[in-house]
């Protein structure tokens, strides 16, 4: 659905931001005007009148007073109205005339002597004698300066508070309008990644702007991904059946084609074909296992597992496959824990790492364990080869990646490490690799220790498993 221009989120955000900014600026401006209003004149104190009246009672002295002249103490003439007619009848002190002309003229017309506080002094008057009038000004006292400063600071604080709360209002409104929907979209994206097909978007898909369009697109994507996952799972099931069956028949046919009467006359072409069929079956099995792990098709069957016995059984099984493998795999005595986990999946993790080390190196493969606390432990698989370039360490667990395919072209297709990582993730752990300081590659399998009492009562107990496992290893 195409979004109309007047439904555009960009336009709405611009209009909302402009309206809020205008409201905040207007509030600050009005507040500044309110606090910037000129102070009102107050009656002149009686003691000031009694002090100045004797000095202003003489006609000659009064007529000689011109703006800027010092009268007595700190008082000087700020404005005067002389008896002469003409443009020079009104005289104002130049500095005051530039900044406070209106206040001077208004004060000259007052009926009674008053005092008006200006930023740079206290204006006093008017004092009249016949047709002459004068205004005096004195510096502000310390108390008057402090009071003036307090009023100025209050005005600045009020403006700051208006701007602060106005900005907060803008942030809150924009948050409700934009940030909350984005959080819901992020949560919906995570739900899709987790495999959900029904998203919790509330009323978001009903919006007519870009966010609404994105929400509707996510709903469509979630549904399409669900359909795709279902189709992929069906395909895996079909591929598993359709590929395994002909491969099994080919293996049987190749065995029957061997000449049992004359074993020395084995056809080398048939032998090579048998190896390739077996290799192809292994590759298909690993691809299907990786796909099942990535699609969450593996169901865990937690059992009490003695990890040390499991590692020793794995080494014994490899020795049965190849005697040289048994000589190269060394299981170290360490603090191996007993944990409730899936035996097959944990074995898959370790076996793929060990097989990978056996195929790519020629030395001893060490299996060690470090128990951190009662909740976590780490299985270490270390070889004594040449290690891996640092730039390739992060790629080791990518499907179909091989560090040196030219040197070991028969080592596999690069799925063992990826299988170990996916299986460890299903078990609630992780896998990482590093070059050991003393040489070789060391792969760490970090897993949680799950208490035995978390499994059902009808499963084997820890005592039973410890009694049975030595018999199985024999």
From TrEMBL:
**A cellular component annotation (GO) from this entry:** plasma membrane
Which keywords accompany this UniProt record? ATP-binding, Cell membrane, Kinase, Membrane, Nucleotide-binding, Phosphoprotein, Transferase, Transmembrane, Transmembrane helix
Regarding the membrane, this protein is recorded as: Multi-pass membrane protein
Q: Which reaction does it catalyse?
A: ATP + protein L-histidine = ADP + protein N-phospho-L-histidine
Q: Quote the InterPro entries the UniProt record gives.
A: 2C_sensor_his_kinase, HAMP_dom, HATPase_C_sf, HATPase_dom, His_kinase_dom, HisK_dim/P_dom, HisK_dim/P_sf, Sig_transdc_His_kin-like_C
TM spans (from-to): 161-180
List its EC numbers.
Answer: 2.7.13.3
Looking at the record, the residues that make up the Histidine kinase domain are 238-451
Superkingdom of origin organism: Bacteria
- Which intervals hold domain HAMP? 176-230
Query: Which residue intervals make up region (Disordered)?
Result: 455-474
Cite the CDD domains for this sequence.
HAMP (cd06225), HisKA (cd00082)
For this protein, the record's Pfam families field holds:
HAMP (PF00672), HATPase_c (PF02518), HisKA (PF00512)
Q: Which SMART domains match?
A: HAMP (SM00304), HATPase_c (SM00387), HisKA (SM00388)
Supply the name of the protein.
histidine kinase
Lineage, top ranks: Bacteria, Pseudomonadati, Pseudomonadota, Gammaproteobacteria, Alteromonadales
